[in-house]
Amino acid sequence: MAEPTATISRPQRWDVPFDSKMDAAAVDSVLAIAPFSRIDPTNFPKSTPLRDILLNDTSLRSFRKGEVIVREGDYGNSAFFIIRGSVKVALGKDAIPATLLGRRETHKKNFLETLGQLWRNPLHPEVRDTARYSAARAASAAARSGDARSPLPGGSRPPLARKDEVKAGAVFLSDIPAVLKGGTVSLGAGLFFGEIAALGRTPRTASIFADEPSELLEIRWQGLRELRLRAPEIKQFVDTNYRKYSLENHLRETEYFKDLTPEELKLVADQTRFETYGGFDWHTDYKKNRDTSPVERMRGEPVIAEQGQYANGLILIRAGFARLSQKYNHGERTASYLARGQMFGFKEIAHNWRSKDTVSLRYTLRALGYVDVLVVPTHVVEKYVLPKIAAADLPPLIEAKHEAENLISPLEQLSGKLPTDFVEFLVDHRFINGRATMLIDLERCTRCDDCVRACAAGHDNNPRFVRHGQQLGSYMVATACMHCLDPVCMIGCPTGAISRDSAGGQVVINDVTCIGCSTCANSCPYNNIQMVEIRDARGEPLLDQEKKPVTKAAKCDLCLEQPAGPACVRACPHDALTRLNIRDTDTLAAWLQR
Amino acid sequence: MAATLTPSFRRILLRAGLLAVAVGGVWSWQHGLAISLHHTAIFTGLALLGTCLGLALFNSRKKLPFLPLLRAATWTQFHIYAGWFSIFLFLLHTGLRWPDGLFESLLASVFTLVALSGVFGLYLSRTLPARLTHHGENVIYERIPALRSKLQRDVEALVLKSVEDTKSCTIADFYATRLKSYFDRPRNFFYYLTRGQAPLKNILSEIRLLERYTNEREHAILAELTECLQAKENLDFQLAGQGLLKYWLFVHIPLTASLLLLGAFHGLLVFYFAGGLR
After folding, report:
1. Which of A361, A395, B96, B129 lies at a 20 to 30 A Cα distance from B200?
2. Of the candidates B126, B124, B52, B57, which has an alpha carbon nearest to the alpha carbon of residue B87?
């Protein structure tokens, strides 16, 4: 008689909390502090009450003087609220040498572990060790029951965070003035930080360390999202900080603003406007409209600045992507695409400042999905920015004939390296979002599927991509996770199971905390995430208590743990397949023209 | 002039140059041994066996995709040039003569077949991908039977609808007598390999002939049928091309295994008759 199919508990959102040592007393302590004390708990639905969010999506942490809290360049999945003490933000790029930051390295399998996959890999696809799931739940439960915080005595405010001795992996800056290259900004109790990276799914823009013994509340971004959604106090609090600090930070990082004094920078910041185009959930509109004609799709993209208009301000892209296009006959031709950190209109403003003849904007800038921009008014740029730039560093004057020709200058079309149809293809399908896009040269690909087999060998006997996808001429963008610049798949994940690897920014799924809700798979605009039915060692599907198959999200992880890197690229016998950052147009062009 | 060469062509020139140097070096070495009255066949035979073993390792590398053992593309290039080099070694070893013994003839035949299948595979891998890419929609090989079945169901539904809409059996009869067998299974494998499109052209010309006897509604149905025929032709082409790209290895690899066994046995025999085992 066949053995019955194994059943497991269906994974739930808070099976594995952010910090299993958070307890009711700790939640009470947090709720006693502003702005949390002002939150109305009745605004929260029964399924996600305020207390449960604080219990499961936050962690109380203590830091000693000099201890690094966040590192510049790391991908953050959480924000911090300073309860006590103060922290310092190291200003400037690479303000603290990377060697001193103690960045966590992703675990890579060693040679024997790698070789061991030959005989350790299960025979069936998507086999999971169910003991891991129950162990994670048991560990969380044990931590809560066995090591609960003692209740707070009335009226007193003992330290909220655990007094860990020295946390494993903690990194201290022992001689702070000596290691810092630039200045610092101090943040005191009652402020948030890290929310820009957490909410924007972007790398941390600065390293932050404790300036004195400090107690911080770390909030997983799923929890922060709920708090912003249900508590106007938190939303206002976070958004005000977000605008204030990110604006100055962004301006400081912009090349032409780097020579401004702090006072000038503040004056510029005061006159800079925030503008937002499109919605955070751009993927929904994109999916809805992707079968319409490219012309119709372009018409639906909000115009940020239009060709032929006077350049009223310098536009800095803060988040998202924008299409740069130019009129061509009766349509518009895409010249390039801009992303975070890039600017629009500087050449025109610089030209008009130096020359008697005035030129208008030569391109139209359109929002591709959600775009956040800063607009620095032209008169501000002319007064504070342009005089500080050496004449040799200013862009060359725009020749009148180029403007009149109404044609894209080849030099301005992504350095003239990518053919127009390829640029249109990348923009139309939003592949510009890709940081590790799988491109296949179909004139070299013999359809041998060695890439697929190699992928399966390293991933539960089931490949994490489909060797099929959108195609332009001889090039195909395969259905494989692109590890996007803006990973919208992360937006709705209720547990934080899908997140960025802090070091490399690869988008990865934690199989233990994934509850199989499909939100990420449905959000991915490129259908690059699959829901798979998991199995036991005998190959039987695992069922929940209601006898429904348990599913997990599965996608390419760029072979993060394999020592040799992405197996698909290494397995291709004809050098037909590559993983490319689409923003790296030099490498892309070189690959196309090899 | 170098500036006008593409990077890939420059790489080919470099590898071909290295191959020429290797060939020249081995030829000089063998010539030197012959002048000094050495038995050169022993050395060239060992070199040939070693090269064949090295070539065969490529398949083992494919089974270990996660190990850091150089990229498969690097192995392929080595495989190709070492393959040409092995042919040169074989010619040097046999002295450009076909062996007269039964076992040696068998061994030489197997080597020739391995070499020919390798060259054939190289030709396929350099020519078929571009043809497959530009012929029509690219489909995954394993999905072709399902796509063909769906296409056949669509065509049958279209034909039945034509009978209902037009109250005429002309198209249905044409389907039953001429098209059904075309949609039933993969067709015209060899035509596709020779770049021929005669079967499709023949059917399409018969459809054009049928248009003379049909009304406008039927013309529209025939136009849809034509699209389906072209889709079927593409599926057949993809099946033939991708199948060939996959299955030539089913000749090359078993023959290679046989070659290694026979080669090793040949080595033992030589060693034995040279007095090594006595």
Report:
1. B129
2. B52
